[in-house]
């Protein structure tokens, strides 16, 4: 009886752990769902910012990659999603002149839906902080901060990044 | 008759162009075949080198990604291939503190096969230059240059890059 109880308790803990590991982060305050599977998206570009010492990988979902390769990027088609993965600068201990990804800062996303996000240039903005993937923003207004920063590139469909074309 | 000849000539040019566009670059001087489809591989890491002002994206084939996610990276398993895509630094015209990919310099690859490449730490090295994807190296000895540079990280299975783990 004790063995059975212990076994049940162990199983319960194991199942709770598994659920936690597979848990989907909560949606952003503006209702954008966490884009699951973004880790498998393909390369759009990379960048390095010296104003906040961060390295970035920009990935795209299938719609983004197809549009980038077809050169149909102004405007980007509905369904496009970009993931920008931001890491603090670190020095490669074996190559001092190389900056490599340090602490993971956040994953941020731009989701194109001209109708749904008409108020912010046709793009939905969202960001999840750190390894805990905590949604960024107190309420839906946070997206105005993102949109404000992207307004100077309105003529590029609000996108700073130029996709790389790999030969 | 003239129309038919012109049509045939036009078609011949069009077909030659198509063949050129789909052409596979020649193998490296050490016999390593060009890894077709690398453009669709997934993210291993990014880096920025200040000694030669270049931004890099490091991608991995399925074997590399599986090993990275499982933490089985010392040694990396046979079948692992990394692609390092190197771009000259450029300044984002709309964000002066951001470095973005400029001219495409080369794609270089590390292919793990402990037996085949036993003489160079179990890794085959190859590089294709520029958009023309010209194989690098006069003869098979070029790989000694690559291996020499990677020898200081022998205890990391000759790999400088640490794969990022995306939450």
Write a concise keyword list for the protein shown above.
homodimer, 167 residues, alpha+beta, six-stranded antiparallel β-sheet, 3 helices, 32% strand
Concise description?
Chain A has 167 residues and is α+β, with helices and mostly antiparallel strands. Chain A has helices at 2-21, 62-70, 142-150; strands at 42-49, 54-60, 81-92, 95-112, 123-129, 134-135. Chain A has a six-stranded antiparallel β-sheet with strand order 1-2-3-4-5-6.
Structure write-up:
2 copies of one chain form a homodimer. The longest helix of chain A has 20 residues, at 2-21. Helix content of chain A is 23%, strand content 32%. Chain A is of the alpha+beta class. The first copy, chain A, has a 6-stranded antiparallel sheet. Chains A and B meet through strand 1, strand 2, strand 3 and strand 4 of A and strand 1, strand 2, strand 3 and strand 4 of B.
Helix-strand string of chain A = HEEHEEEEH
What would the average pLDDT of chain A be, to the nearest integer?
A: 90
Low-pLDDT residue spans of chain A: 5-20
Roughly what percent helix of chain A? 10-25%
Oligomer: homodimer
Shape of chain A: globular
Strand content of chain A: 25-35%
Distance between the termini of chain A: 66 Å
